[in-house]
Design goal:
Order of helices and strands: HHHHHHHH
CATH superfamily of one domain: Tetratricopeptide repeat domain
CATH class of one domain: Mainly Alpha
CATH topology of one domain: Serine Threonine Protein Phosphatase 5, Tetratricopeptide repeat
Number of strands: 0
Length: 183
């Protein structure tokens, strides 16, 4: 009888974990959509709901959610808050996933875009270079790689490195063409 109870309890607990993950995915997906639609108040509400579930699930989900908060604030030009969230996300992702994980590159790019938008290309450049190196090693979507290369080209232009900027623009162009021909 005790075995049956333990088995039932384990199944219920596993089901709860699954439903928590499902809710987290729904909340984070809705928050990202709201950020894209520039409905920032709604996005922040869903991001808070996602963080509540992420706290129950683990560091990987927390890192993604913190990154989402950073993006929400970056889009609103709340650069100091965005920087804080991206730094928290970056530390958590590096600790949880390792320093060369593609998700780390996403957060590096986002933090760099924050610095660039806030007028600090000298801080953005090294982050984008690291993100590019990670993306060159791993399996990353062409879209993510193009985003990093385009941002790096713009940062190089702002830093007076026109030749480097042209090289990144060319790499982005080639990647775009390759991804179009693969479809």
């Amino acid at each position: 009888m005790m075995r049956v109870f333990v088995l039932c309890a384990a199944l219920v607990f596993a089901g709860c974990a699954t439903s928590e993950r499902f809710l987290w995915e729904e909340y984070i997906g809705t928050a990202v959509a709201m950020v894209g639609a520039e409905k920032y108040g709604r996005a922040e509400r869903f991001m808070n709901l996602a963080m509540g579930k992420a706290e129950m699930l683990g560091n990987e989900e927390r890192g993604v959610t913190l990154n989402g908060f950073g993006e929400l604030f970056r889009r609103q030009k709340r650069y100091d808050e965005a920087e804080d969230f991206f730094k928290l996300a970056l530390a958590l992702k590096e600790e949880t996933l390792g320093p060369d994980h593609p998700d780390v590159a996403v957060t590096l790019t986002n933090l760099a875009l924050t610095y660039a938008a806030d007028g600090h290309p000298e801080d953005a450049g090294p982050l984008l270079e690291r993100a590019r190196e990670i993306q060159d090693k791993g399996k990353v979507s062409p879209r993510a790689r193009v985003r990093t290369l385009v941002a790096l080209a713009e940062v190089y232009r702002r830093m007076g490195r026109a030749d480097d900027a042209m090289a990144m623009d060319e790499r982005a162009r080639v990647l775009r063409e390759e991804s179009r021909t693969e479809k």
